[in-house]
Amino acid sequence: MTASLSGATAVAGVGYRQYRRGTAPAPERGVLVRAIVDACEDAGFDPADVDGFVSYGDDKNEPVRLAPDLGTKDLAWSGMVWGGGGGGIAGAFGLAAAAIVTGQATAVVVFRALVEGNSGRLSAAVMAHHLNDHMAGVGMVAPAQVCAMRAQRLFDHHGVPRSVCEDLVRASYHHGARNPEAVAYGRELDLSDFRTARWIAEPFRLFDCSRENDGAGALLLVSAERARDLRKPPVSLLGVAQGAEKGWGDLLENDDIDLYPTAGFRPIARRLWAQTGLTPADIDVVQLYENFSAQGVASLIDHGFCTYESVAEVVRFENLIAPSGKLPINTSGGNFAHGFVHGIGLAVEAVRCLRGESANPVPGAKTCLLAGGPGAPTVSSAVFGAA
Amino acid sequence: MPAPVTGQLGAEGRYWDALAEGRLELPRCAGCGRWHWPAVWRCGDCGSWEHGWTATRLAGSVFSWTRTWHRFGGAEGFETPFVTVLVTLADAPVRLLGVVEGDDTALRIGATVLGRVGRTPFGEAAIPAIRWSLAA
């Protein structure tokens, strides 16, 4: 018999603390403990009863070191999805759910913490994970450059219009401008600024690139049954997939010719839709990890929301904003405009959105796709459902 | 073979030895003939552990490119802006990165390029690396 993950577990609480880069009020572990306790208080759950922890992206906070502050009685599960980037964020929920469904843990926190004073610049840490002499010898020392080169081919060879990136970024800022927690609160994207901002690596200008913030996020996952007795409406984990297919992943840019311009999600989307019985048309809102604008667009294409040919019909500003758009994305402002703690804010927003707590509500939303860090060698996505 | 300056050395030691002498050599499976790049110890297709290293011309066409303007830490070996290209080799189904030298007005996907081996300063080291020139 195969145990099914679908609907077996639910997020019962979320916590998120975000600060301007370099301004966190405590070192990384202190900020993380605060976010975990926030998540437990949100759920009405004793932090001492959390018995599992999962992270991703080379997080440096080994769970056993959190135990004294949390009062952890019994640490039964700790795990991490491999990879230096944000590709593993959704897969972390898969590890947590697997532990709960198989009885290896009962209450698992998925977390990510990032404080520059402790971990340095995230972009440098991600690149250190991947850097080798092949890259260093040609000046390719940042994720922005690797993604820029793929974006160039997506535009010039596969015909994706550059204007869709502008619409994606603009939609994120539209939401961020209306979210008091967002770095872009009160500030819409000025299109002339977007179009004339300094080049980073062509075709990316400054606003095509995500920010970095200090902060931490935590989400408490428990069995669906247990979640029903806690304080907040549970948000079910309906499905999750992680990994890579042959011809993709840390291959010195020798990915399969058809996969090279993608964000790596084709196999993830296939498995996710098969696992949940859902299709892109069934998704009410998307929390879309965008390290760079073109990779966010490629992720939407990979997941089946559009094709190279139809992308301009779907990735339109009006279509991407809540509450009126058919495909609202990044209702908190996303990595571009809400803030970037290695993407964990997107997972928090997936839950808030399905509870009706988003600053940019999507009325009646029942399903939310969390698409993980695009372009990473190991990528992952998950679908959450409202109670 | 010298230790890599960054990251871990994989199965491509001979690539670096040849490159340091100004030549390009790439590995090909002795069992099934498949070109493997990045280099592997074992062919995942046929299971062979034997590879032959084949001298290959530094000639090909641009698969994609980026022009870097931001002064990223670690890229001090190049004056900004500089163009990095990913080149599909003419004689092997392999793509190799390199920085463009000389006139780049003909830069576009599909453009023909010829290469030579240069050295990129990186900290105290000088990493052998390909420089590509666009055909006029």
Short description:
Chain A has 387 residues and is α/β, with parallel strands linked by helices. Helices cover 34% and strands 19% of the residues of chain A.
Structure notes:
The complex is a heterodimer of chains A (387) and B (136). Chain A folds into 2 domains: 9-120 and 215-227, Peroxisomal Thiolase, Chain A, domain 1 (3-Layer(aba) Sandwich); 139-212 and 239-386, Peroxisomal Thiolase, Chain A, domain 1 (3-Layer(aba) Sandwich), CATH 3.40.47.10. In chain A, a hairpin with a 7-residue loop joins β10 (367-371) and β11 (379-386). Chain A has a 9-stranded mixed beta sheet with strand order 3-2-4-7-1-8-11-10-9, with helices on both faces. Chain A has a two-stranded antiparallel sheet with strand order 5-6. The mean pLDDT of chain A is 96. Chain A starts with 8 loop residues before the first strand and ends with a strand. In chain A, α8 crosses α12. Chain A has helices at residues 28-43, 67-70, 89-101, 116-119, 122-130, 133-136, 143-156, 163-176, 191-196, 224-227, 266-276, 293-302, 311-314, 317-320, 334-337, 344-355; strands spanning 9-20, 52-56, 77-81, 107-114, 199-201, 204-205, 213-223, 235-243, 285-288, 367-371, 379-386. Chain A has 387 residues and is of the alpha/beta class. Chain A contains 16 helices and 11 strands. Chain B is mainly beta and 136 residues long. Chain B folds into 2 domains: 7-56, no CATH class; 58-136, Beta Barrel (OB fold (Dihydrolipoamide Acetyltransferase, E2P)). Chain B contains 1 helix and 7 strands; from the N terminus they run αβββββββ. The mean pLDDT of chain B is 95. Chain A binds chain B through residues 124, 127, 130-142, 144-145, 148-150, 152-153, 156-157, 198-203, 251-254, 260, and chain B through 4-8, 16, 37-38, 63-70, 72-75, 77-78, 81-82, 84, 86, 94-95, 97-99, 108-109, 120, 122, 127-130.
